[in-house]
Amino acid sequence: MSTAAGAPAAPRASRPRQGVEYWVRTAVMAVLAALVAVPLYYVVVNTFKTQAEMSSSPLALPSRLYLDNYVEVFGTVPLVASFANTLVITVASVAVMLLVGAMAAYTMVVRSSRFNTVLGLCLLAAFVIPGQSTLIPLYRFLVGIGLIDTLTGLVLLYSAGSIFCYFLIQGYMRTLPFEIIEAARIDGAGPWQIFWRIVLPLVRPILITVGVFQTMWVWNDFITPNVFLTSSANRTIVLQVYSAVGQFSTDWPSFMTLSVLAIAPVVVFFVFTQRHIVAGLIGGAVKG
After folding, report:
1. In this structure, is residue 53 part of a structural domain?
2. The domain containing residue 38 runs over which residues?
3. Which residue ranges does the record assign to the ABC transmembrane type-1 domain (predicted)?
4. CA–CA distance, 70 with 16 (Å, rounded to integer)
């Protein structure tokens, strides 16, 4: 009886501390979330204001629902073409990066050798080089092969992101049960069959995770399209946002309206795929 009577004492003593810690964490996270949400609130609210109202009260709610900014943007900016260009570049680039990264990771993991180790170190060295330092050589390279100011040239440039995919996918692949691969080899399956039918389905969580990261990077990237795309017909949606900035003055409501339209698809995409990011990263960490 003394044991049974004493057992609840510890939980009763710890509950107040757990409660305080919980509310403190909640309060801190609420403050941080509010700080992060303020810029988004500022941008979205001002899309429903006139230039004068925005200047006078930028953080206040609009006095009325003013939709002329959206009407003007849809009427003057080729949004459909810009979204189509961005979608083509993003889908093609991410597909190439995932394919090349997965194939490289599979080769490095399955065929471990001194050469592969040295090659992996070279890839790591290339990964840490700032992309801005290579813009001029890359520009001259695309001019030489006739792919400057083309969507294909931009996809070719983004394919360098395969190095990032390779590092994440390789770490996940090392946790796989390679007895399955050995069994497939014994059954007569070739390297391509093993890769497509066994390995890729097993690493699907990390492929989704890396795909989300790279999709958000390519969609939101500004520097690369701004340097390598010159014609208005090939502009991405981010470049259309930048085109609203004038040399001497800026129509800020239109600029913010374009910004909202540009980030809305990627925000929706992230909301629906964020659980795959956590699942992919945690899965690679706890397997094996």
Report:
1. no
2. 2-46
3. 83-273
4. 52
